[in-house]
Write a structure and sequence with these properties.
Helix content is 36%, strand content 25%. With 119 residues, the chain is α+β, with helices and mostly antiparallel strands. It starts with a helix and ends with a helix. This is TfoX/Sxy family protein.
Length: 119
């Protein structure tokens, strides 16, 4: 099997969670999706905003909100490469099961992504 095919097979993510996240972001004209980090990343202006990896939300909260985010229940550092990625966190499914919880994390990610220069 080709390497690319193996990579695509390993990119599993919760489609229901992805659809919930999409409902907050698809109104942006620059909205795009890319498969990365073993899941699905949502992009705004060419910058990663947030995404879904397995059953978890991946949120790009930025370095200023990173430490505070880690203090929230169900949140852990993103360590996809074995090294923490400062400014990015994973939120377990239990931490985004309610719509208001998901809205907060997507909103923080959206604000950070839109604060960056477009790519």
């Amino acid at each position: 099997m080709a390497t690319r095919q193996r990579e695509e097979m390993n990119m599993a993510y919760n489609e229901a969670l992805a659809n919930r996240v999409r409902s907050y972001l698809t109104h942006h004209p620059s909205y795009q999706e890319k498969k990365m980090f073993g899941g699905l990343a949502m992009m705004l202006n060419g910058n990663m905003c947030c995404g879904v990896v397995g059953e978890e939300l991946m949120a790009r909260v930025g370095p200023d909100r990173y430490e505070d985010s880690l203090r929230v229940e169900y949140v852990r550092q993103m360590d996809f490469t074995g090294k923490p990625l400062r400014g990015m966190v994973y939120i377990a499914a239990a931490g985004v099961s309610k719509e208001d919880e998901l809205a907060i994390w997507v909103g923080l990610s959206e604000a950070f992504a839109l604060s960056l220069p477009p790519k």
